[in-house]
Amino acid sequence: MSAPISNVRPPFDQAIVDIVDYALDYKITSPVAYETARYCLLDTLGCGLQALDFPACTKLLGPLVPGLTMHHGARVPGTSYKLDPVQAAFNIGTIIRWLDYNDTWLAAEWGHPSDNLGAILAVADWLTRNGHKLTMRDVLTGMIKAHEIQGCIALENSFNKVGLDHVLLVKVASTAVVCQLLGLTRDQTLNAVSLAFVDGQSLRTYRHAPNAGSRKSWAAGDATSRAVRLALIAQTGEMGYPSVLTAKTWGFYDVSFGGQPFKFQRAYGSYVMENVLFKISFPAEFHAQTAAEAAVTLHAQLLALGKTAEDIARVTIRTHEACMRIIDKHGPLNNPADRDHCIQYMVAVPLIFGRLTAEDYDDTIALDPVWGKRIDDLRAVITCVEDPQFTADYHDPKKRSIANALTIELKDGTILPEVSVEYPIGHRRRREQGMPLLLKKFENNLDRRFSPEARQRIINASLDQAALEAMPVDAYVSLYVV
């Protein structure tokens, strides 16, 4: 006689349980985390406003069906759109990541935890406009928790080494946090997070030659919108998949992670937000931030010697392994998305011009018959070499440095003293130096879209921590509506 079939499902994988219990129950008590989250909010929204200057970005925005609007829909900062929360998450996620110019997290896996704001702000604004009492403190709490989930998984687990894009972590983190905002039960949230892992995951194809392209700029928007969709599906009572990670043959570990379980360095808390890296000086892939800073310094030294970049015979970049694996590129660069992930390009431009701006990646510069050729000629003589100590310090949780050191040899045989930068201005160790510059960057981005009066209203609402935290979400987001 055969045994009866059991309808009892196995318990959820512990990694999923830990995410859900943290998202639903953990109380954030760190004032540093909340203050840093406020800076992150401002910088992220400011970068989104700057992205609206680029038609390649704005063509992707708005409702899925042209002309469709939603009564009491979520608003997209810098626009007049009123959208359902799924499409709003795509819009917000796309603008804040388009220029790759705000926060970063570097570990075994790198990524941009602020990407999660696409889902968090869209859902919080939509809920508030429909009768729920959410404040900006709820948004900051969601940001801290999403940063923590994404960043703590990234510390010891490299998705890029198995060909998967880091936006997988954005989707997982956003799903968990959005479930909390929506008021889902623990069982519903477990189901939702399992659904995020069941999904087929994005390949890194669009981040690497010969296929580097603009999808990398809307991949996070795609991930956040999917997170909101999965949370709403789970809210209906749709089932989840408890052993989605560990199931033999068919689970995530066996199918997509080489059969290896996730490893964890630390329990979830507020570590990631407290130590997040800000891009302040340059719109450049973060592994090149210190290299670009060194290049600007060397540009000034060349001018002082009566020299220019045309006098350079070769440049050696002493760097870390992650930089060499991700952005050490030679040969043709096909588009802005290719150029802003090439360290040779991001060093050549400041050596020539003494600057590196978002516009410097455009075809108007890169394909210019004079300036484009000078950039390409200089790129050809820039070489990266790994320094094992730089690599070790990159992974050291007490340092988390992103060091680069540049040495220039001139055509007359002169070798300039090496310029080494260990920590970028956006690093926690340079936070005191960086935050005034970050706020100036935010104010400059507000100037792109708003009148002086509207700009001042946003600044007044944003700079006082307690006042911002107490503000209803819809009231704050409405300040950004045009």
Structure, briefly:
With 482 residues, the protein is mostly helical. It has helices at residues 14-25, 31-51, 55-58, 85-97, 117-128, 136-156, 167-182, 186-198, 215-235, 252-256, 271-275, 289-304, 321-327, 336-339, 343-353, 363-366, 371-379, 388-395, 431-447, 452-462, 465-470, 473-478, and strands at residues 74-75, 82-83, 312-319, 382-386, 404-410, 419-421.
Q: What labels describe this entry?
A:
single chain, 482 residues, mainly alpha, four-stranded mixed β-sheet, two-stranded antiparallel ribbon, 6 strands
Write the layout of secondary structure elements.
Layout: H1 14-25, H2 31-51, H3 55-58, E1 74-75, E2 82-83, H4 85-97, H5 117-128, H6 136-156, H7 167-182, H8 186-198, H9 215-235, H10 252-256, H11 271-275, H12 289-304, E3 312-319, H13 321-327, H14 336-339, H15 343-353, H16 363-366, H17 371-379, E4 382-386, H18 388-395, E5 404-410, E6 419-421, H19 431-447, H20 452-462, H21 465-470, H22 473-478
Parallel strand pairs: 3-4
Antiparallel strand pairs: 1-2, 3-5, 5-6
Helix pairs in contact: 1-7, 1-8, 2-4, 2-6, 2-19, 4-5, 4-9, 5-6, 5-7, 5-9, 6-7, 7-8, 7-9, 8-9, 12-15, 15-17
